[in-house]
Amino acid sequence: MNWLLPEYIADALPVEAARIEGLRRVLLDHFRVRGYEFVMPPMLEYLDSLLTGAGQDLDLRTFKLVDQLSGRTMGVRADMTPQAARIDAHLLNHQGVTRLCYCDSVLHTLPASISASREPVQIGAELYGYAGIAADLDIIGLMASAFDRIKLPLSRVDLSHVGIFRALAAKAGMTPDVEARVLGLLQAKDVPGLIEACSAVASPWREALQCLPHLYGGSEVLARAAELLPALPEIVSALDGLRHIVEAAPTLPFSIDLSDLRGYNYHNGVVFAAYCPGYPAAIALGGRYDGAGKAFGRARPATGFSMDLRELARLVPAGKSAAAILAPSVLHDQALASKIFALREQGEIVVQMLPGETACEGPFCDRKLVLVGEHWIIEAIQED
Prior knowledge:
By secondary structure, this protein is α+β, with helices and mostly antiparallel strands.
């Protein structure tokens, strides 16, 4: 059965492929008119470049092979964000703010969920060179406006800040192993396990860590967090930043979850996850990852987001498919050829039959070209 594909790998057939490509064009144009320039990184890179700053999670998701030219280990990209950081830091070398966007396939060793593909089509945008909270707000606004553009409503946008847990872990003097264990318990909201894991942590850091899973809900959570958490400069700054984002975009459906620390080994500031009605997982993920370009010679402030275009195509309301015009297989008719050319220039889909072809099995044709006198005109195709 040599026609079978590997598990969690699938073809995109004409209808789905058209939806994916249509969304790609709409979203990239949406990014372009807001100043985000399109880049096309390669599918393969040396592994140390692909995994820069990305932590173990990306390492486990990356397919690896040996380059027969250099003998070095290469990887098939599992995420385009490190590639964009390399382009900003090493190739463009701008001194001010750089805005980049991208869209292409990535490859994962394992699917992110039981329904996910191992070959997502990742589309995203990144902003480099601005450390202030205004850049995080700009990226979140860009993401939200992209969903407006494709008419896919957001049910909520979860906000968190990894700096809060980092500050508490540092003050508590946690070893890397303990920190990783507590992080996993926080992400799972395993309160009994967290209480046990923090039993040896000194006060007040123990109580602060144990209250993080309970700090979720509406914007009122920020005031509660300010009361319950130690007034460390890093925590005060993080809560102020989150408060600024919520107040600056009152129309967005923000929620707060201070134990949502996904991408902890990569991100170092505000993180966010967007959700759509009826879809259980986050449809878009993003956040701040300052310093990702350090390995390429220039540490730059950075923030961005990405999403899977394949999943978006399944969720976006289906529009009316473009119908085609059927043209007969008349050869050496200059008038017909000119008419077909003019229609295609106007954006119409025109399928010209081949000699002996009796029906078009491709695009749906609702009209046809017929010769009336000396002129080719369009007529509706009447259903039997």
